[in-house]
Amino acid sequence: MLSKLQRATDKARLFLQIKNQALSTLFFTRHVSMGNTSPSKVQALYELCKTSFTPSGSPPPSSHAIQKIYSLLDTVHPVDFGLKEDNPDDDRGHGCFGLNQLNWTARWAQPITFLDIYECDSLTMCIFCFPTASVIPLHDHPGMTVFSKILYGSLHVKAYDWVEPAKILESKGPGNRGARLAKLAGDDVLTVESGTSVLYPKTGGNLHCFTAITPCAVLDILTPPYSEEAGRLCTYYHDYPYSTFAAGKGAAIGEGEEEDYAWLVEIETPDLYMRQGTYIGPRVV
Fold it and tell me: For this UniProt entry, which segments traverse the membrane (predicted)?
């Protein structure tokens, strides 16, 4: 009788253990599932941007809004956008797309890959994936505020701001364009540790060029976006040392040395070796 009672007690105890384990598993599953319903960082960025930006860029984002976006961008990683960081020793620059069988010659001829995350009349959110040594030439962001964050790799950025009031050298040759004086705003190699950078319509390096030191990816948020209808067109330039044009040597340069200044001449839109990639990260809802 005692042995039967003991067996029954053991069975009851085992049943309760199994039931408790099942309830714990169910609670954990529900907890994880509920956790997965929290907004992605992509969604959080969008929500923050949509309340801070306007289609016209006027008024510009407040300093408080810029700081909040800046702080959130400092927390993002490649995985938040569905990217796999490239091996820094791999010069092919396409680890995040799985193109790992390129030969030595072909790896130097890979395009920059553009990933379109989200675009509306107030902002553009996108990623550029650069192979080593690829370049986006000197260009501007007229009337725009731009947030940039290196997601992986290293990128050389050379940036200028226009000297105000404008100092322009008119060209006397037929078909030639005049040169305008600009001041160097930065000439640095940026990495993940560099954090988020922000440029403004007239300060912070609104005109800049990119050169990939290693395979790298850059997240950009532009507000308002480029728009032909609104007159926000991208213009490309070539920069010349201040001493290049003898006629311009008398131009007052203000603070700094001559090496801090350059003459920028507008050029035709270059043929950029760029392709449209497929964004596989979290979508904006």
Answer: none
Instruction: Give the pTM.
Output: 0.78
Q: What domain count does the chain have?
A: 1
Inside any domain, residue 20: no
Q: What Cα–Cα distance (Å) separates residue 79 from each residue in 82, 85, 105, 160?
A: 5, 8, 30, 32
For residue 33, being part of any structural domain is answered with: no
Tokens coding 1: 């009788």
Cα 66 from chain centre: 15
* Full domain range(s) for residue 207: 38-91+109-247+256-275
pLDDT in tens, 240-276: 999 888 766 666 677 788 899 999 999 999 999 999 9
Identify whether 204 is part of a domain: yes
CA angle 220–42–79, rounded 5-degree value = 90
Whole-angstrom distance, CA of residue 41 vs CA of residue 221: 14
Q: Residue 270: what residue type?
A: P
3-state SS record for 92-144: CCCHHHCCCCCCCCHHHHCCEEEEEEEECCCCEEEEEEECCCCEEEEECCCCC
Supply 146's token pair: 């731009």
Residue 257, class by beta-carbon neighbours within 10 Å (0-12 exposed, 13-18 middle, 19+ buried)?
Answer: exposed
| C-alpha–C-alpha distance, residues 109 and 95, integer Å | 15
Whole-number Å distance between alpha carbons of 102 and 85: 17
Residue 222 lies in a domain: yes
Q: Which residue has the higher pLDDT, 217 or 178?
A: 217
Report DSSP letters for 27-69, one per residue: HHHHHHHHHHTSPPHHHHHHHHHHTT--TT--SPPPHHHHHHH
- CATH code for position 74: 2.60.120.10
